[in-house]
Every structure is written in C-alpha cells, then in structure tokens.
Amino acid sequence: MSLTNSRRAGTFPPPDPDQRPGPGRMGWVEVIEQLDPATRHQDILRITAGYEFPWDYQRSLEFALFRTYCVPTISELLARTGEFENRPQKRYDDTALLMAELIEHGYDSPRGRESLRNINRMHGRYTISNDDMLYVLSTFVYDPIDWIDRYGWRRLHPHERLASFHFYRQVGIRMGIKDIPDSYQDFQRFKMDYEREHFVYSEDNHRIGTYTLGLFQSWYPKALARPVAAAVYALIDDRMSTAFGFPKGSPRVQAAAEAGLRSRSAVVRLLPKRRASASAHDPRNRTYPGYPVGYCPRDLGVEQDHSLRES
Questions:
Q1: Per-domain residue ranges of the chain
Q2: Neighbouring C-beta atoms of residue 158, cutoff 10 Å
Q3: Ranges of residues in the chain whose predicted pLDDT is under 70
Q4: pTM metric for this prediction
C-alpha cells in the first residue's frame, strides 16, 4: 500500500504492515530506513515534508524561490509579467501549493496530474530556457536539504536526500525539462556551477527581490518591517546579496537569527512525532483560505485570461 494512494487527506497509510512508525521521536526515521529512495521517493518525501519538517520545508522553499530571482533571465520574465508587482502573495501561494499538491498526493495521482497540467500551462505561456527551468528545479531539491541540515531538529537521513532528488527528477521529466542529470552529485554540481555563472546584478533582480522582501515583511506587523529586512539580509549569502543589490547582512543579526532558528528546533526535538501530514493543508493560507477544502489544483495559478505571451 503506498502513501500516495491514500484518499484521506492528512492521514498516513503505512507502506507495509511491518513499517508502522515506532513510538519514539525517531519513529518516522525507522520507516524511512526501510524504504528504497529510488522507488519509494514519493513516500519518503511526504514523510520529510509533511510529518518531520513541515515548517522548515515551507521556509526553505520560500528562500529557494527567492534564490532563483538572482538569475537575470528569470527576474526579467517575472518583471514583464507583472505577477510579482501586482499579485506577489498569490504568485507565491500558487507555486507553494502546487508543489505541496505533488508531495502530498504524488505526481501521478489525479491531483498530481492536474497540478502538473496547471504548472505546464502557466510555463507554456512564455519562452523559458531549459537551463533556467532546470536550475529552478534544482533549488527544490537542494535548498530544503541545506536549510534542514542547518536549522532542522535533526539531520536528514541519506534516503531523504536521495528521495528528494529522485522525486523532483521525475517531476521535471513530466514538465518536459530536458537533460536532467541522473545522479544526485551531478545535479548538485550543475546547481552550483549555474549560480557561479548566472548570479549577477540586474535591475530586474533588484525589483523582484524588493517585491519579495516586501512580501515577507507583509506577513508581520508593520513595526517589524526593518527587523524582518535585516533578518533576510543576514540569512541570504553574499552571492545573493550582490545579485539583488542588497546590503550585506549584519553578522550580529545573522548570529541572532540562526540562534533563534536552532532554538526553535531544540523545542521541536522534544515534541512527539507528527501523526498527520501538514504538507498541503494550510487553513490559514492568505490567498486560498481553508485550502484544500473547496479548492482543487486547477483553481491555482495565474488568471486564465492572462494575455502576455512570448514567442
């Protein structure tokens, strides 16, 4: 029985009767150890993102998307569409929820296929280079891994790392992305090389980066706008700061922000393991209140009558 065949949102059907999570905090890790990351990557990633690290996974994908705007060809397209200038919260929520649908239900499930059709429809409106698509895909693999290794309540199991690679590789294939490396190490090397070559300053980078920073600030009271900006500057690396034209982060703020994140993880480490997936169930979603109740993947994304198209 596969996790991805479940029809009950928020419940976890164990892959096999003898693979139920143990009673301790590491119970899900015991399940992960028994699963092959090449063939059971959907099950493993759903545990990682939905049960073990839902908060960290969401935060890491926020920064992963932020990271892609350091590539001028990506930020230039986003600037032309006006999506980030006019609807930054919706653009963010659409992307996050479509990815969460794939994780929660599986890329070949009915909801997964519907999500992929929607993703491909949105991308099909524009001319996007294969390498840019490949780079964005790589951030979904490696940025959550890096974040969780730094700030998570435990380090990832090797099966979780490989499962992320295999999962998003299959998603990329279904999106029509070509030349996806066939090994974890080769894809990671592609990502690093792409950033070294393509992370350069542009005005569009700065515009989209500023809109996104404003989005992050909007999630908190106005009085915290400056501290939020200072924390973002401190948590992004020097290459991102340069590409956005942002000021370098304060080492003192960086130390405080990282200490706060690690303190949170120390508390989470003491909590009982999660028994309901949180990967695609956010009743507080700002654009789609109560999601997923009353919504389906085809409701997500830019408006159907959006007319901008590049040839």
A1: 26-200+285-299
A2: 12
A3: 1-20, 280-295, 301-311
A4: 0.87
